[in-house]
């Protein structure tokens, strides 16, 4: 088949990782794959078409529709798969009248306004990545239940757990009748015992609501932990650090001033697996949490 994936990719979010992984799976099965997104480069061998899908001005949307419509026609695309509401919107109009099916994957809750329920731009089938989102689409978005299919995000785990020793010791700690709760110190102890510095990693985006939660950690949680555990390091892994709220930027500067190199500002990296191997505890959500747990690393989601 000839498959076109359309996605918003201003930054490398979980939905982008999902789309890239799916595109690579399609390629391994022998399909021809195109990706249309904001990004000029993505870690895929699929053919990339840079297009500002995230820009929602009507002029830009109409331009995106024309480009996608021409791409679908000229490359004889068999199916279009959209990965955000903005991508679904332009894809809906791009395939209209062309007898090309449109599938949308919904990765999060949709903004609720009149047009969301009255005008369904999601295509012939909709993939919800969890049951909660499927219920949201049925009950709040008022989407036809028969077009919704639940397909959880696929994650390729390594055959051997990266952090099995950490997982074992934490399990023993939890099973100890005298230990009624899992403390931060017990979470950090296994890596210290292995002769490596204990490391707490926040992995995820630093903009929007996630940025607000990160700012609260910078201000209220990380300082006392770093003062109590002298070998502890905190790694900040992910994109959009420049979009932290002002309180987060100030708190991060204070952390760096007080703790120096123990605060590791990594930013975006393709080597998340490598950081998991040297991390004692991960703070993350969504795909990050699943990958960390699959690697046997204790995770606070």
Describe this structure in words.
With 301 residues, this protein is of the alpha/beta class. It has two domains: 149 residues, Rossmann fold, CATH 3.40.50.2000; 137 residues, 3-Layer(aba) Sandwich (Rossmann fold), CATH 3.40.50.2000. The chain has eleven helices and twelve strands. It has a seven-stranded parallel beta sheet with strand order 3-2-1-4-5-6-7, with helices on both faces. A five-stranded parallel beta sheet has the order 10-9-8-11-12, with helices on both faces. Helix 4 links the parallel strand 5 and strand 6. Helix 2 crosses helix 3, helix 6 crosses helix 7 and helix 8 packs parallel to helix 9. The radius of gyration is 22 Å and the shape is elongated. The two termini are 38 Å apart. About 11% of the residues have low confidence.
Task: Detail the topology: elements first, then pairings.
Blueprint: E1 2-7, H1 14-28, E2 32-37, E3 47-50, H2 58-74, E4 79-82, H3 85-95, E5 102-106, H4 114-118, E6 125-128, H5 131-139, E7 148-150, H6 164-175, H7 184-193, E8 199-203, H8 208-228, E9 233-237, H9 246-259, E10 263-267, H10 272-277, E11 281-283, H11 287-294, E12 299-300
Parallel strand pairs: 1-2, 1-4, 2-3, 4-5, 5-6, 6-7, 8-9, 8-11, 9-10, 11-12
Helix pairs in contact: 2-3, 6-7, 8-9
């Amino acid at each position: 088949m000839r498959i076109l994936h359309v996605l918003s990719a201003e930054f490398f979010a979980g939905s982008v990782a999902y789309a890239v992984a799916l595109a690579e799976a399609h390629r391994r099965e022998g399909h021809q794959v195109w990706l249309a997104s904001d990004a000029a480069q993505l870690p895929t061998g699929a053919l990339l078409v840079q297009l500002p899908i995230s820009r929602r001005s009507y002029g830009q949307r109409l331009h995106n529709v024309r480009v996608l419509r021409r791409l679908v026609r000229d490359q004889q695309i068999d199916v279009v798969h959209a990965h955000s509401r903005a991508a679904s919107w332009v894809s809906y109009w791009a395939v209209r009248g062309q007898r090309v099916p449109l599938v949308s994957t919904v990765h999060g809750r949709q903004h609720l306004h009149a047009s969301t329920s009255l005008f369904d731009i999601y295509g012939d089938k909709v993939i919800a990545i969890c049951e909660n989102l499927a219920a949201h689409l049925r009950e709040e978005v008022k989407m036809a239940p028969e077009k919704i299919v639940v397909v959880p995000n696929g994650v390729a785990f390594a055959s051997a757990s990266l952090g099995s020793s950490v997982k074992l010791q934490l399990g023993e700690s939890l099973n100890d009748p005298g230990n009624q709760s899992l403390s931060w110190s017990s979470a950090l102890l296994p890596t210290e015992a292995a002769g490596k510095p204990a490391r707490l990693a926040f992995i995820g985006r630093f903009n929007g609501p996630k940025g607000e939660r990160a700012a609260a950690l910078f201000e209220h949680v990380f300082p006392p932990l770093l003062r109590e555990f002298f070998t502890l390091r905190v790694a900040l892994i992910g994109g959009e650090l420049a979009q932290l709220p002002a309180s987060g930027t100030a708190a991060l500067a204070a952390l760096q001033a007080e703790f120096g190199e123990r605060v590791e500002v990594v930013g975006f990296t393709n080597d998340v697996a490598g950081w998991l191997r040297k991390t004692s505890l991960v703070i993350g959500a969504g795909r990050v949490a699943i990958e960390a747990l699959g690697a046997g690393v204790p995770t606070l989601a």
